[in-house]
Amino acid sequence: MIKKITHAVFPIAGLGTRCLPASKNIPKEMLCIGNKPLIQHIFENVRKAGIEQFIFVTGRNKTIIEDHFDHAFELENHLEKNSKNHLISDLHDMMAQTGQIVYTRQQRPLGLGHAIACARQWIPQDSAFLVVLPDMYFTHETALIRDMINLHQTSGHNIITVKKILPSESEKYGIVKPHTTDSIDKPFSITQAVEKPPFDKAPSLFAISGRYILSTDIFNCIDKIPQGHAGEIQLTDALNELISIQGTYALPHDNKQLFDCGSIEGLMAANVNWIYNNETISQSLKNEYGFSLTQKS
Questions:
Q1: How far apart are CA 8 and CA 11, in angstroms?
Q2: I need a labelling partner for 250 at 20 to 30 A (CA). Which of 90, 126, 218, 241 fits?
Q3: At what angle do helices 85-93 and 73-81 cross, to 10 degrees?
Q4: What is the phi/psi pair of residue 185, to 5°?
């Protein structure tokens, strides 16, 4: 019987160089979409999908994220004295239950594969788990993750989300190779993943988009691969090891639901989308500043 997926790994040790200078002292995951940090949006969406245990793989200067998901007693006392209990309730609602979040440090910047391996002791053996890259923000993430879990439960395969890209974008992403070109508008089997290939060597135009369901065999695959470009242990290389021994599906999604918030452009676009879809904020901006933002995605 296929085990229930209960654990999610969030690799958050990256330096966020594409968001400088905003990310110099503030982790990119704490930059906001609307009134919430990016990491809070993603955490809440993942929790709504049924995940119960959350492993954050952190690095230096990331303790602010731990503080964000903890009690702030001075703030809560201040809010209580000023009869703002509704705000206290909002702060409590965003917090996990005691013991649901684990923080483990990636002590050296050795790549995404290495970051995921740092979480191995927290994942039950012979199970599968979710990997969530926190700079990729999905507007309908809860539904997407439920689709991933359902596909894993019915197929028993590893699952990777993918998006369709332009040919000129192939060198930005890991690209998957479909087993067949038939019916690739819905979940399809893949035989290979290639890290940031030039267009003439890309096996398809389907790029990995930051959500994975992987069996714990991925840890043995990570152990086998050598350090690659810049001395990093690439997850893409480990995925190829995993694909060679286990079935792996790609799950396409609507590109309009995805924002790459590791870049300033993507973060700003996510904020504009948030405004478009928040009628109260849109109306306030119109009334106070003359902004007319009525379009919705």
A1: 10
A2: 126
A3: 150
A4: -90, 0
- The two tokens of residue 92 are 């409590």
Distance CA 20, CA 68 (A): 21
Task: Return the residue matching tokens 């639901």.
Answer: 257
Q: The tokens 């998901």 sit on which residue? A: 69
Q: What is the DSSP letter of 241?
A: H
The distance from CA 6 to its chain's CA centroid, rounded to whole angstroms, is 16
Cβ neighbors of 178 (< 8 A, separation 6 or more) are 184, 188, 189, 190, 191, 203, 204, 206, 250
pLDDT digits (tens, 9 = 90+) for 256-295: 889 999 999 999 999 999 998 888 888 888 888 887 765 5
Helix (H) or strand (E) holding 280: helix 279-289
CA distance 282 to 286: 6
The average pLDDT across 168-194 equals 85
What is the three-class DSSP state of 198?
coil
